[in-house]
Amino acid sequence: MDTHTDVRRRRLGDWIVGQELGRGGMGTVYAAVHEESGRHRALKVISCDAEPSPEEAARFDREIRIGMSLRHPHVVRMESSGREGRLWYLVMERCEAGSLADRVRERGPLPASRAVPLFLGVLDGLSYAHTAGGAVHRDIKPQNLLLTAGEDGTEVAKIADFGLAKAYETAGLSGLTRTGGFAGTAGFVPRAQLIDFKYAKPYVDVWATAASLYFTLTGRTPRDFPPGRDPWLTVARASPVPVAERGATVPRALAAVVDQALDDDPARGFATADRLRDALRDA
């Protein structure tokens, strides 16, 4: 079964599946309406290439339960999950404004005055997940930062798919770009994660958040990926391009913080989300 199976106009559990909202390595997201209550949510639908073993299915369910336990204003809320045959589906909060990746592609890079407040919120959510939830995302990227209205009506960014990278890997499900035992998205992966994906530490999420901010400010990934070259070889060997060399209008102090956060040596970057958040506030 294709990972991106079209399930529109079907019912999954108590949900009526509507229009497609987006798709990526981790499945396809649809608008959905609860048949009885009329609640509007997003359904992420995942298919697997083969029937998982009971142990694999149990590991997947365990990781999803961890994701559902996270409750923070800057983490997309997962409410429940279900399964029909080889299809898993996750019921999630719907963020009406789409992803940060879509916003940058459609309108161009954001000014620092708009980008930094969004990422201060993301880093708050990341800090909560790392400390209170004990979870490492391992696939933070602009596609997984969703935009919606906050409690005060201003636009905020929320982290989606927390825990799914590990869930897919441990359950053997299809979905992520893989090289051997590695999974992730090359443009937003630190070298340290490539070396040791299985035991990734919170630092890898901090790096990926900085890479996402870099993209938001410049419209480019930190590393250049030459056509025809293995992207993972680029991650292993190439260094990030300094923000100032991208030609975007970014304040010097902010560019310095982002460049430091993207250092391939974890000892020279920012070990925690709190440290990067504080540095951005001071920039």
TrEMBL record:
SUPFAM superfamilies, alphabetized: Protein kinase-like (PK-like)
Keyword Cell cycle listed: no
Binding site for ATP: 44
Ranges of residues in domain Protein kinase: 15-283
One GO MF term attached to the UniProt entry: protein serine/threonine kinase activity
InterPro entries, sorted: Kinase-like_dom_sf, Prot_kinase_dom, Protein_kinase_ATP_BS
CDD domains per record: STKc_PknB_like (cd14014)
PROSITE patterns in the cross-refs: PROTEIN_KINASE_ATP (PS00107), PROTEIN_KINASE_DOM (PS50011)
Coiled-coil regions listed: none
Keyword Kinase: yes
E.C. number: 2.7.11.1
Keywords: ATP-binding, Kinase, Nucleotide-binding, Serine/threonine-protein kinase, Transferase
Tree of life domain: Bacteria
Descriptive protein name: non-specific serine/threonine protein kinase
Natural source organism: Streptomyces wedmorensis
